[in-house]
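Human:
Take a look at this sequence-structure pair and walk me through the tokens.
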Amino acid sequence: MEIYLIRHTTPKIEKGICYGQSDIPLAPSFELEAQKIIQENTFLDSDCLVYSSPLQRCRLLAQKLFPRAKIVYDNRLKELDFGVWELQAWNEINPSELQVWMDDFVKIRCPKGESYTDLNHRVIDFKQSLKINTPTKIAIITHAGVIRAFLAQHNNIALKDSFQYKVPYGVVTVIS
């Protein structure tokens, strides 16, 4: 089985804004970015089981990449819930509150939000729901945090070390 983890394309939001589970639109470059993904990935022509975060930045890309597929939208594939920090500028968040979280973002929850461990549990639950022995291809259109959690689990590394994985917008990461 091959799993294709596809990060959404560039969102339409100012740099420096915390936007985890906020349902923000895509940048005007969406069509060009989506075409680049299509041109560079032959697996898109094959039959895949397709899963996506329901947030529009993933949903619209899933529909563009897999126009004939039955896409399953799954809340477990959403980005980290930053709670009360959603849509705030990072530099405007209370510095002492932010520092507590940054010192142990794996275990500490954002105020009224999630920790990275919470996100990781969602990913584990999602993976367990897949038919692991299925000889098929699975495409998952999702967010950087979810992709890093998948990679940490797959490569057996600590969550705190998963930020070594660079996950640019529109990138496809393959797990076999």
User: Anything to note?
Assistant: The first strand starts at residue 2 and ends at 7. The beta strands are 2-7, 48-52, 71-73, 137-142, 172-175.
